[in-house]
């Protein structure tokens, strides 16, 4: 089993444990703010399962029907996570409105807050694991899961502070108000996840920093060629697709041109794990004199 899938399975296990703790905290206190925290944890479990399924699909090798692989499955998972986040926010707003209409004092607050705080610490540790893994492995599914979990950690911290304030002041209306604020925070998180996923589904280009790094690699490893131009790239999950035109002298043999292409591809593969490079070789009269200069 790959490291990515192990982390995905870990997310499901952590999500279930945190959900159990937060549900118990709500049951002990009756706090609608803690209920909102527990409802968000249900979404955490659902999104972790969606990420796991997407990662299993994206790991499948290319086949006749999907010659470029199954990498974009991760983006569908991230979009689903965004939708589920929005659903959770709507549920929380409904609970908050009902509690606002008839505010009630919180029961056994310190015991419930202790349980909820333990769940928050577990979430915070796992959030760091997901964000680091998503960045290192270039996994949209893990990155989206980590960003969502980060909002849960922030929400839990805000809920804890707010519930303490409600208990100390006796202002029961603070409880539903906090739940509503948690819902707004979750909605913003959902939009951010969906926005980034749509970019991947629409074949968004690699960041400018990576494009510049590609230009440098091509320039440094294309000795013998004239120039390179029309560099394009797109990300699909953990895969990076790169293509460009390479201009070579008209008298150069196919074998010599092929050696230059192999050299460039090897350099790009080392710098960008999981990259797929396509090079279109052209004769010298096709030069545009405005592309990548060969060192």
Automatic annotation (TrEMBL):
GO cellular component, as recorded:
plasma membrane
Which source organism?
Answer: Salipiger aestuarii
Q: What's the protein here called?
A: Protein p34
Tell me which UniProt keywords the record has, alphabetically: Cell membrane, Membrane, Transmembrane, Transmembrane helix, Transport
Cation efflux protein cytoplasmic domain span? 207-284
Record Pfam families: Cation_efflux (PF01545), ZT_dimer (PF16916)
| Major localization listed first in the record, in broad terms | membrane
- Signal sequence range: none
Question: Which residue ranges does the record assign to the Cation efflux protein transmembrane domain?
Answer: 11-202
| GO BP, one annotated term | intracellular zinc ion homeostasis
One GO MF annotation is:
cadmium ion transmembrane transporter activity
List, alphabetically, the NCBIfam families matched.
CDF (TIGR01297)
Q: Check the record and name the PANTHER family matching this protein.
A: MITOCHONDRIAL METAL TRANSPORTER 1-RELATED (PTHR43840:SF15)
* Location within or outside the cell: Cell membrane
Report the superkingdom from the record: Bacteria
| Transmembrane parts of this sequence | 7-28, 34-55, 75-93, 113-133, 153-171
Q: How does it sit in the membrane?
A: Multi-pass membrane protein
Say which family it is in: Belongs to the cation diffusion facilitator (CDF) transporter (TC 2.A.4) family.
């Amino acid at each position: 089993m790959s490291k990515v899938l192990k982390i995905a399975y870990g997310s499901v296990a952590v999500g279930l444990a945190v959900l159990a703790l937060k549900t118990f905290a709500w049951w002990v206190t009756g706090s609608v703010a803690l209920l909102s925290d527990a409802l968000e944890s249900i979404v955490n479990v659902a999104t972790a399962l969606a990420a796991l399924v997407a990662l299993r699909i994206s790991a499948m090798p290319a086949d006749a029907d999907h010659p470029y692989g199954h990498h974009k499955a991760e983006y569908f998972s991230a979009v689903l996570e965004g939708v589920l986040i929005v659903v959770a926010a709507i549920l929380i707003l409904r609970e908050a409105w009902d509690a606002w209409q008839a505010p009630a004092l919180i029961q056994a607050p310190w015991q419930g807050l202790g349980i909820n705080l333990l769940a928050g610490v577990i979430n915070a540790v796992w959030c760091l694991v997901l964000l680091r893994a998503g960045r290192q492995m270039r996994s949209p599914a893990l990155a989206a899961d980590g960003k969502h979990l980060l909002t849960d950690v922030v929400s839990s911290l805000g809920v804890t502070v707010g519930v303490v304030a409600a208990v100390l002041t006796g202002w029961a209306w603070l409880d539903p108000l906090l739940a509503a604020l948690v819902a707004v925070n979750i909605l913003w998180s959902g939009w951010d996840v969906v926005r980034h996923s749509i970019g991947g589904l629409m074949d968004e280009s690699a960041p400018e920093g990576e494009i510049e790094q590609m230009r440098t690699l091509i320039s440094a490893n294309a000795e013998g060629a004239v120039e390179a131009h029309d560099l394009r790239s797109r990300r699909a999950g953990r895969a990076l697709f790169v293509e460009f035109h390479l201009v070579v002298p008209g008298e150069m043999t196919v074998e010599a041109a092929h050696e230059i292409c192999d050299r460039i591809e090897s350099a790009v593969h080392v710098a960008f794990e999981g990259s797929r490079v396509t090079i279109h070789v052209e004769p010298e009269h096709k030069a545009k004199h405005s592309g990548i200069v060969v060192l």
